[in-house]
Hints:
Distance between the termini: 46 Å
Number of helices: 1
Structural class: alpha+beta
Mean pLDDT: 84
CATH architecture: Beta Barrel
Number of domains: 1
Helix content: 10-25%
Strand order of the largest sheet: 1-4-5-6-7-8-9-10
Largest sheet: 8 strands, antiparallel, barrel
CATH class: Mainly Beta
Low-confidence stretches: 15-20
Order of helices and strands: HEEEEEEEEEE
Amino acid sequence: MRNLTIIIITFLASCINLQDNSNDLIGKWECYHKELEDGTTKSVDAFSEEEFEYSCDGITIELNSDFTGIDNTGIKFKYQKKDSILTLGNRSYVIEELTKKQLVIRNYDPKGINISNFRTKFKKTD
Length: 126
């Protein structure tokens, strides 16, 4: 009986921790770094052959407690977090890190057909 009680308490504590982690998503997030999955931050333009650095282009997203969000261009979307997959509108991402102040996501491609998967880092601004 004692072992069963310990297992139940551990399970409930982990559920509470997962809920708290999901609440960390709520707020306004500003992109500050973008790189390829392998850590590469620069590339060469195929036409001009000039080197450029990957940019966030001022990306900000605001996620609300009712599972809706809005980006910096005014586009509204619904979001969902299931395990470590975050779906923003019709795009899915793997959550690599989620704290109260930082969100790191990577493009999620279950079919493995994307040529480049980006990792994007956000900081909470509110």
